[in-house]
Amino acid sequence: MERGTTRRVVGNPLRGQTLLLTLDFVGQEIDAVSNLTLVGVDGTDLETFNITQGEGFYQNSYYVAFIPSSDRFRLKVTGFDRSGALFQRVKPTLFTLGDVKLSQNVDNSSFSNAIFPGESLELEINVKNTGDPQTLYFTASDDLKYFNSTNPSQGILEKNDTLVLRVSLLAPGHAAYGVTSTVTVVVSQNSDFTQLVNFMVLFVTVASKVSETGTTGLTGIKLKEWIGLE
Questions:
Q1: Cys-Cys crosslink for 75: which of 30, 40, 91, 229, Cβ 3.0 to 4.6 Å?
Q2: How many CB atoms within 10 Å of residue 200?
């Protein structure tokens, strides 16, 4: 595999992007893992890619780099256990390729996963449209109900246009230190958000401005995402 820049892909993978999938097996003694198959919505095998076993410290891990040609698929892995028996494992999640890329704005000087009781936090997210011109709608939610607003709430993006989406959160004054809220940012093709095109998941933690060492401790936002290669 040719080495290059590796970056994480948030939400759904992009159409035409090379994806790197790593596999770890738990509770089964593996002799060999032969291939990864993309399975269509109707259960038909679409295309198959060879899987490579890691070396040395990573010999119990497997990886495969591939460019999906299908827009919607599930993943099926085929291999053999140490008794020589064939096994197959299917991940039930239906993956959908898209044209809208979401990424955190790391140039934002206030970038942090920390939110303070009684104060607001603004997260900046770059929304890039790599496909045809389209109108996109934005919203967000979180399990602790800190979400306040998105700005803008919608936008028209031409091909390769990028829009900066600002997601505002507000923690109540009685918010307990150390609790974490899962924030989900959603991009849709319609205003009732029934035609999802991509999403982003972030974890925001309530923090104290002054740590035990007397300094303000801020760390980066954690992301739930794919891994892609450029």
A1: 91
A2: 24
